[in-house]
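Rotation project, supervised by the postdoc (A.L.). Task for the rotation student: set up a whole-complex structure prediction and record inputs and outputs verbatim in this book. Inputs entered:
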Amino acid sequence: MARPSLILKPPTPTSPSGEGGVGVRKGELSERALGLFMLAPMALVLLLVIVYPLADSFWLSLHRMNLTHPEQGTPFIGFENYLYAFQQPAFWYSVGRTLYFTLVSVALELALGLLFAVLLNESFRGNLLARLVMILPWALLTVANGVLWAWILNPSYGVLNAFLLWIGVLQEPKQWLSDTFWTMNVIILADAWKTVPNMTLLLLAGMQPISHDLYEAAEVDGATHWQKFRRITLPLLKPVILVAVALRTIGAFRVFDIIYVLTGNGGPADSTKVISFYNYDQAFRFLFFGYGAAISWLITAFMLVLIVIYVRLLRTEVVQ
Amino acid sequence: MGTRRGLLLSPPARYTLLGLYLLFTMLPMVWLYLSTIQTQASLLTLPVQFIPREVTLTNYTDIFKPAAFGENSGESTFLLSLRNSVIVTVATTFIAVTLGTLAAYAFARFNIPRKRTLLLIVLSSQLLPAVSIIIPLFRMFKSAELLDTLASLVLAYTTFSVPFVVWIMAGYFQSIPIELEEAARIDGASRLHAFARVALPLAAPGLGATAIFTMLNVWDEFFFALIFTSTYASKTVPIALAEFIGRHSVNWGMLVTGGFIASLPPIVLSLIFYRHIVSGLAAGGLKG
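Outputs recorded:
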């Protein structure tokens, strides 16, 4: 089957592509004109829905714009919105919650992803079936995943409490989603359950090309399984691990949906109010559009840093 | 080959890990399914029944009736939201695949200045979160009177789906040998003809996989829909579900059944096109 064989590889421009092979015939659009013609629809759409909004958002962030007080107008206030954000403990608190969510969930995903990728890279009967099973959480609607975990974690009728009471770990039902410590952690678990397959598939794709001869040679030299993992798998997989971690970090940093479904308001006591939730509150619940735009620009700037790191890793680590 | 001894796991370790893996992956899914085939009364029986005593499929029919899930002008809100989701998904996928494929081909085959940088910008824009652009989009749609329409969602969804198609398909076209198109051109075909008759059919598998990914991402989208929709003229399935869970007394049977039914199209598509999905994930390193 023809398919992109490049693992995690951005399209590399092939040597001068196409030009020169056959000259332009009379009555045919020139190469350049046709190229521009094919690019134009995409470019127009992206200018309208991405480039213009990014610019507008920045412009907005330099103004005071409070939709609940339209009579105040929208005075230009320079970087005041940004300075205001930096002085807000609630802003820094949400940054902290986002970092916590991102670090713990990416670490958990990487640990489980590695374990499962090692497992699925073995040859055993039913391997394909085991891989197919992974599709189930991966393809589940994000909101349906939230619904499922809300049901599992329900204090009275939820299966988690029932099970933990049954085996005796808990003496009384736990209110998982009204506890400032547990809420964030069970959300991380719920989110990881759905995203681990993604991580596993990426790592598995990186493991498959590693030659079995290397493992056999190591075995001849008397290496243990752990040594083979440490000395062969891990070093050869490093580029893919870095790319996968960068990609999942970008994904984790934008978390919103599952927190909205499981808590409704980023609670209890703002313990799950990650930065995108804080931004949502400011812009769409309190209608501070100027301040909201400033927060979203801060998020954008930070995401761009992550994206640049990701793209660099793609280019330097994987494309060789 | 070390099939029996295993690459990195001894047989006992392998089967232990396999057991844990299956429990981790399957148990929540099994619980979801078991909960859809019980009545509300049996879901709310204490102590919690790990194995359902009686099984019923009434949830699957009730959810499409106005009374059980929620009603809007005589129709089930679940059904209405399902209809909206289908329209938005089909329309967005069509637009993204059309615009994206044209642009991807231009990137792959024409001499475009700063091609690589442009492609990386396209990739970056696909990775930006919705919050980066949602306030200006909201203002734009408000002044164009597009709020609470399916069109606003389709427009918003092009922000991630068009760059996604461009990125994946540009890589795909580059993996197809150019000689075939050159041969067609020597035989007198125009450049556009070579694209439509030679390159496009060869790219069909990639195109299909890319279209499926786009559909999955659009079907799943929540944040834009939360902000831009306000009635069942445009609310999509994720919004209908999130609203339902927010109600005072939750009918869990309806809710889990709604989540399960809404997840069936992506699950079935992904299982059928498993190989494409996996290679697409690896090649793109994408899927927000």
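Student's summary: The first helix of chain A runs from residue 31 to 61.
Supervisor addendum: Confidence is low (pLDDT under 50) at residues 1-22 of chain A.
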